[in-house]
Model the fold of this input.
Amino acid sequence: MSDQMQVSRSLRWRWFLDDVREHSRLIWRLYASRMYTWDRR
Done:
């Protein structure tokens, strides 16, 4: 029982990390594009 709980927790943690990585990538792209447009003006 405890083993299953540990596995589910680790899986959830991995999914959470993946989500954070994806969101950070999207935010970085938005930030980079905004800075690029500001530089061009």
Observations:
- The chain has one domain: 1-41.
- Helices lie at 2-40.
- Residues 2-40 form the longest helix (39 residues).
- Residues 27 and 33 are 10 Å apart (CA to CA).
